[in-house]
Each structure stands twice: as C-alpha cells, then as structure tokens.
Amino acid sequence: QVQLVESGGSLVQAGGSLRLSCQASGRNSWTYLMGWFRQAPGKEREFVGAISRSGDSVLYTDSVKGRFDISRDNAKGTVYLYMNSLKVEDTAVYYCTAGRQGGLSSDEISYNYWGQGTQVTVSS
Description:
This protein has 124 residues and is an all-beta fold. Helix content is 0%, strand content 48%. It is built from no helices and 11 strands.
C-alpha cells in the first residue's frame, strides 16, 4: 500500500513556473512507477508525464514537452513536477499516481494508487 500526498499547487500568472511535489509513503514506495495526471474543469483526466523507478526514463504528453520536467528522489520518497512557461490551459487539478508493475505508461490502468490532487490555476 502506498499513500501519496501532493503539494505545491497555487495561482500563477501565465508564463510563470511552479513545482509540484508528491510525497510517497509506504513499503517500497521507491520501487513504483510514478506519474502525474491532471483534470481540468469539465474535462476528463489526462496524462501529463511519468518517470521510471530508477528515474532514468521519462515520458510526457505532447502538450507539456519542453515545458515540464519530472524528477524523483527515491531516498526521500518524493516525486517532483517542474512546470515552466505555464499557460492558461494548464489550469487543472494535478494528481500524483503510482504503479506497482510495468514500464512507463500514459494509461490510467497502469497506476494503482492516487493522491488527492493539488489545484494549479494559471491566470492570463
């Protein structure tokens, strides 16, 4: 069992930056595939990015490539989402997620545990 707690969401102006953090607790949390999803008002939840267990490989959705970066510190049990050049359309609740098995994936079915989410609002 893994518990995930996101933090760092805030109101920011377009063009600004934010860093989201996800604290994972529980047995062997460092062995999990980690990902970020987001859900904007009135829209379905969508994949943002994922990072492998070792942190050597990452996967991003096209809309955030070149702007967002994911990293992890397994010693601290923390995953980070660095968001730069934020756009109004990045406004959403951002969820951290963990998967027990498999490689990098943009599919929700690959992930077993979810955090409660943190709100990111980008103003124009």
